[in-house]
Design goal:
Layout lengths: L1 H9 L5 H18 L4 H6 L6 H11 L2 E4 L9 H18 L7 E8 L7 E4 L16 E8 L5 E8 L5 H6 L9 E4 L7 H23 L20
Parallel strand pairs: 5-6
Antiparallel strand pairs: 1-3, 2-4, 4-5
């Protein structure tokens, strides 16, 4: 409990697995001071099981809370209306599921701590903390049938991270198209570059292999795609 309090004051997250791992280490340290026979140690070995953790919660009164970030906002009405409009477009143009592609970007905070943590019974809410800001952006794309997944676009704030230099990583051989800018954002320039160098060639090749008559690509006109690939 002393250790949990220290973690709580530091703003660190402590999950069930982290607490159980710490409990096992404490047991190992205590066992060194009270050595027994090998048979006894095997029989009485402390596992920090799920049952132990449930009992520990009852003994101490700790409870789990969620670290809240910024509330997500979305226009649900507009989204519902667009679903109907998009369905009408697909039906009128007689597109197959193999010809319908969707892409979207997402931010990955690859150093971020878990959102859920355990706090003491005396605390009703989690004090504020400063989350890790190191992030990258990924742009994923696939078709409605699910059998064509286009190489993702990855945007990071560093063009050549230290790990790349140390291990002689060749970005061209990665399973993503690696690009960089100071904000780690998918800008219009990077998006058009990905469309021309990755999306266009991969999708055209895929559609020609399926059926030469399906190689036509179209766009809804709401993005910044070059007219040459619409």
């Amino acid at each position: 409990m002393v250790w949990i309090n220290e973690k709580q004051l530091a703003g660190d997250s402590v999950s069930e697995s982290i607490i159980c791992e710490k409990a096992r280490k404490i047991y190992e340290e205590l066992s060194k001071n009270e050595p027994g026979t090998s048979a006894d140690s095997e029989k009485d070995s402390f596992k920090a099981s799920r049952g132990w953790f449930e009992n520990f919660k009852r003994w101490t009164g700790i409870h789990s809370v969620v670290r809240h970030g910024e509330a997500a906002s979305s226009d649900t009405k507009a989204a519902e209306a667009y679903v109907k409009e998009f369905k009408r477009l697909v039906n009128s143009e007689k597109y197959l599921s193999q010809q319908v592609f969707n892409c979207d970007e997402t931010g990955l905070f690859w150093k971020k701590m878990p959102r859920r943590t355990f706090i003491t019974a005396e605390e009703k809410a989690l004090p504020g903390h400063k989350p890790m800001k190191d992030r990258l952006t990924l742009l994923f794309c696939a078709n409605a049938s699910g059998d064509c997944k286009v190489k993702p676009l990855l945007v990071y704030h560093s063009e050549n991270p230290r790990a790349f230099k140390k291990n002689n990583v060749q970005k061209k051989l990665l399973h993503v198209m690696w690009r960089s800018n100071t904000k780690a954002w998918v800008t219009r320039i990077l998006f058009v570059e990905w469309m021309n160098e990755v999306f266009g060639p991969e999708v055209k090749k895929y559609l020609r292999e399926k059926d030469p008559s399906h190689s036509k690509l179209t766009c809804d006109g709401q993005c910044s795609c070059p007219s040459s690939i619409r």
